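Lay summary. Proteins are chains of building blocks that fold into shapes, and those shapes determine what they do. In this project we predict the shape from the chain. Here is one chain we studied, written as its sequence of building blocks.
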Amino acid sequence: MAVDAARSEEGFTSAGATRVMVAACRAAGLDDRGAELIRLGENALFRLVSVPVIVRTAQSVEYLSAARKEVAVSRWLAGEGFPAARVVEDLEQPPLVDGHPVTFWHLIVDAGRAATYGELGAVLRDLHALPLPDSLELPRYSAFGLSDSRTLGLAA
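And here is the predicted shape, written in a compact code that computers can read:
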């Protein structure tokens, strides 16, 4: 695996993430001018000014598999008509730019009010009712962490 010079010298910084975002946008034909860094953590999230798109840059190539799975899940949910974050469809995703997986997402505009617990419950019910495609393998989610194994008497 090639070492990303910007990453090895600086770590995952706003400057390094910005360079990756700019290169990814230019390769995708998107205007990066005026892009706003809205979060820097496990990923860097940029909001483009020219189009309602969020550019998500991962810290390293180790996140490539996760990025591919996120894109696949988004496409599956879009095909089911499920209300979830959508990747920009007409782009090959995720490109790998200087060792960083990059994904492009449609901006979700805040509706101005929080969902009720009933609305959230209905969305979760609908999500869990969807048939999982054979081409998509998702890990089992443990909502209670170690308590699942304790209940089964497996924890030491």
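What the prediction tells us: The helical segments are 5-10, 14-28, 64-79, 117-129, 146-151.
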